[in-house]
C-alpha cells in the first residue's frame, strides 16, 4: 500500500492518529475515504496489534469501526506499526458530552444506545473491560459473557446522562474497594433521576444482579427506550452508486464467491456518516469561517 500521512487528528497513550492520503489512483480503492491511521513504534505496538486482533474477531458490523488492514513503515530512523481504520468524524461520546456542556441530551442517548445494543446483538466476542464497567459476575467469578456487556451498557448510559462514571468514587478510593462494591452486597450504580421513565426502566434491566435474569441485547432492542429510534447513521448518497435501488447494467463474467464479495465490500463500501454529521463539519464553534481566495478554492464547471 502506498500512502502519505496526512493531518493529525488525535493522540493517545500508545498511538497517534492521522488522516490517510493515498498516493496514486491505483491505491484510492484500498483506502475508503476518509480513512485514519493509528501508528506507534513497533517496540510499543502491542496494544495497537491487540486492537487489530479484536476488530478482526468482531468481523463486519455497521455499528463498529471498520479495520482496513495494517503495515509497517520506517520514518525518522524508527520503525512504526500502522493500523488503518474507518474515520469517525464526529469524535467520541466524550466529545459529544463536552459539546453539549457535559451531558448528552436524552434523545441523542437513545440513538447512541440503540447503536451499541445492535452492535452487541451482532457480535459474540468475549472481552474483559475496565473496572468501572465490570459486572458482579465478572468480579466474583471471572465470567465475561454477553450479560457482562449489558451491565457495561447500563454504566455507559448512566455516564452519558450524568457526564460522570456510573459508580461514585471517593477521592482516595482504590480499585480494590471499587471491586468490592461491585462484587459484594446488593449495591448497584445509582440511576439518574432526570432520566425519563423509559430510560430508568431500561437501565434497571441492565443492572439486574443475576446475569441469567438480565435482559439480553435482543430483548433490549424491543424496549420502549430505544425501540422507536430510527437509524440516523445511514449515509446520504454521494454518487449514484450509493442509492439502494442502483443496479449495475454490467454482468459479471466470473462466478461469485465469498472471497470476491468480501473484496468488493472492502474496496467499494463508502464511508458512512450521517447528514447531520456532514452539516456539523461546516459549523465552527471556536474559529469563524473565512471564505477568502487563499482557502484553496478550485473552479468547478
Automatic annotation (TrEMBL):
Has the keyword Cytoplasm been applied to this entry? no
Keywords, comma-separated and alphabetical = ATP-binding, Nucleotide-binding
One family from Pfam that matches here is Pkinase
Cross-referenced SUPFAM superfamilies = Protein kinase-like (PK-like)
One GO MF annotation is: ATP binding
Q: Name one GO biological process term.
A: signal transduction
Where does the Protein kinase domain lie?
A: 1-226
So where does ATP get bound?
38
Q: Spell out the protein name for this chain.
A: Protein kinase domain-containing protein
- Organism of origin is Vicia faba (Broad bean)
UniProt lineage: Eukaryota, Viridiplantae, Streptophyta, Embryophyta, Tracheophyta
Amino acid at each position: 500500500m502506498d500512502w502519505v500521512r496526512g493531518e493529525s487528528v488525535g493522540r493517545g497513550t500508545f498511538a497517534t492518529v492521522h488522516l490517510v492520503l493515498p498516493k496514486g489512483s491505483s491505491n484510492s480503492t484500498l483506502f475508503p475515504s476518509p480513512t485514519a491511521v493509528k501508528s506507534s513504534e513497533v517496540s510499543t505496538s502491542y496494544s495497537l496489534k491487540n486492537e487489530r486482533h479484536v476488530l478482526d474477531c468482531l468481523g463486519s458490523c455497521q455499528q463498529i469501526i471498520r479495520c482496513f488492514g495494517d503495515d509497517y513503515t520506517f520514518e525518522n530512523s524508527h520503525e512504526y506499526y500502522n493500523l488503518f481504520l474507518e474515520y469517525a468524524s464526529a469524535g467520541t461520546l466524550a466529545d459529544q458530552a463536552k459539546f453539549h456542556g457535559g451531558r448528552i441530551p436524552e434523545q441523542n442517548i437513545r440513538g447512541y444506545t440503540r447503536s451499541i445494543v445492535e452492535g452487541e446483538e451482532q457480535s459474540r466476542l468475549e472481552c474483559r473491560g475496565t473496572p468501572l464497567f465490570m459486572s458482579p459476575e465478572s468480579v466474583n467469578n471471572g465470567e465475561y459473557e454477553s450479560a457482562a456487556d449489558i451491565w457495561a451498557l447500563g454504566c455507559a448510559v448512566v455516564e452519558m446522562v450524568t457526564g460522570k462514571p456510573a459508580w461514585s468514587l471517593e477521592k482516595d478510593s482504590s480499585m480494590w474497594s471499587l471491586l468490592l462494591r461491585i462484587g459484594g452486597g446488593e449495591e448497584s450504580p445509582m440511576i439518574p433521576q432526570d432520566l425519563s421513565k423509559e430510560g430508568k426502566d431500561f437501565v434497571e434491566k441492565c443492572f439486574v444482579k443475576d446475569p441469567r435474569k438480565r435482559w439480553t441485547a435482543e430483548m433490549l432492542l424491543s424496549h420502549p427506550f430505544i425501540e422507536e429510534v430510527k437509524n440516523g447513521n445511514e449515509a446520504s448518497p454521494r454518487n449514484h452508486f450509493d442509492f439502494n435501488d442502483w443496479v449495475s447494467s454490467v454482468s459479471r463474467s466470473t462466478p461469485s464467491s465469498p472471497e470476491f464479495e468480501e473484496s468488493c465490500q472492502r474496496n467499494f463500501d463508502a464511508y458512512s456518516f450521517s447528514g447531520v454529521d456532514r452539516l456539523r463539519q461546516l459549523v465552527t464553534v471556536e474559529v469563524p469561517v473565512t471564505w477568502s481566495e487563499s482557502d484553496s478554492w478550485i473552479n468547478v464547471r
